[in-house]
């Protein structure tokens, strides 16, 4: 935490946190003061004058700031309180300077508007990249089956749009679009043409996946996977250098197109959140307000995540709620406004590009002409149960496979794994028309209602020749042979998608989970919807149908069941609720069907939570050992701070520094022999009365800088953290004052503080560590890693799985 903080500000800051986190006053007062430094919830009584003035005539070289002090090393957690206080000091200085001149006033206004400028840039870039990715995926997916002769860069749909010879009945066929067999041999039908098209389909898929995994492995290893587990961890305060870098942005954008086009069972929606956060991190580097403060940077990244979901689904409001509910750790009100603005700009940019060619922002626009009925809540809830069971099955199976990949030889051959899974997927997917096409096209067809103009097998019903009704009000009809054939193909596609998605998610290529999960639910929902529809037609005299389904009426909409099933399966895997429902009705335009979506989402979460509280992203965070302290976890065990703090009973004593009797050589030896992130500073080793806390990185940089710039600093120089220099002999070398890097107000608890309170403090204030004292005497230290390991131990999990601080 920055040093130049007044007591009055800190008191206000703690009380603000008290208001936001609903701490009771008694909880705050459990943190006992130590005698020589007045401490209330980690608040020091040191005055600004004491902290800012140097000691005597000795030079305090830290009067001039030097690079990297106050920064963090890779794979470490930030100190939220320190970042918050640094930003408050920065803002206070800007406000005071703005009264001095017109130029300073203009600079303060620019600083105030910089946040909105960053949001605008994030929205523009993420919307543009999403549009380009959508267009490229459409073209490369169709490239596996054929090519447009008039313009090779056109997809199948775009090629036939421009043709004047396309008829309505054969709207998917036009002379300008030719499949590879027809182009090479001149024959479009027959066994030879089928085999050649089959072979080239598999070959293109293998080529795309090989390029994707090779680019990721060589240029940007962090570009693999969904990215959401790491984004959640980064937003909680963890540092992963390079994860949001420029190379990661470039390679993830390119390889995402290749991976989705290869036909693997994955989506682009999760990786688009990663892409948007890379855009946010890129623009943060342009403004010192965000580049030099990790806490402020994470506010921007929260808004960028909202923009990513906005362009992934065409759901700006759902994107804001997704960021709030699913990924963000600290989400103040101004971040909500800025997230909304970034999502708005991103959606507007995507709509301007119009990648779907339907003049709509939504991906799966539906238009149903029949309301839902109360009796249908039963199959909707059953779909919710299926979604919860599928979510549990997928999480456990996928985590088991990913753990096997990490702990066996399989993990050493990521390219071979991707090639093998792609080959199996392509070979098994091509014979089935519902798995051959892109997953987005499949979901769109499953969501659609069967109108009079539909040519899909799913709409092959037996029509009554005497029927004379409006086009949009077609009654329920008996299923024809095309529907039954489609049901068998959908059942096989369901089994295929369930199995192959387990092995696909987590490979070393960009892979999202939203679309595959929705596909599983949409297939199951469409099958259930057709079953209910046929039951209502053939048994309309049953009591459950008699009140609302008369003969000749349009009672059941199978596409609605597909939409509800998609929401249920996605909710079972991710455990989203509110944001899921909003995303689904924004995605489809089906606002009228929000109640069935809510029922399915809540049911799937209840069923999945009965088998385990963690969603897929939290499970992958645990698998990777990231120090993520979930705000939704409950700690109900009756342990105390003394049970968790270090050192333990048989451990060596705590590594500390004294305020005025440690030499530079002693400090350098301590840094070399230990790997701790910081050291408590005490009055003396005998009294162990706490003075403050100093970060390891700041200490290293300060000594290095002092040796370069301050004359007379040698290994035997005394390091002192007091305001006045210690009394030394004239023959002694010049001492080194390091008071400026000392945190005089470290957060402290007593040894009898319940761990339930300690966990709440770490979770809600974002601490890296807190010190354990008794009557001002230092007893030990509790780090975030200690808290996570203790929680894992209490839940009978492996505490050594937490690998980072």
The average pLDDT value, as a whole number, equals: 84
- How are strands sequenced across the largest beta sheet? 3-5-6
Cα Rg: 31 Å
Distance between the termini: 17 Å
Relative helix content = 40-55%
The number of helical segments is 31
**Class by alpha and beta content:** mainly alpha
Overall geometry comes to elongated
Please give the number of β-strands. Answer: 11
Q: How would you sum up this structure, described in words?
A:
The chain is mainly α and 805 residues long. It is 55% helix and 5% strand. The protein is built from 31 helices and 11 strands. The chain has a 3-stranded mixed β-sheet. Helix 28 (664-673) crosses helix 29 (696-709). The longest helix is centred in the N-terminal third of the chain and has 42 residues, at 102-143. The radius of gyration is 31 Å and the shape is elongated. Residues 1-59 and 468-473 have low confidence and may be disordered.
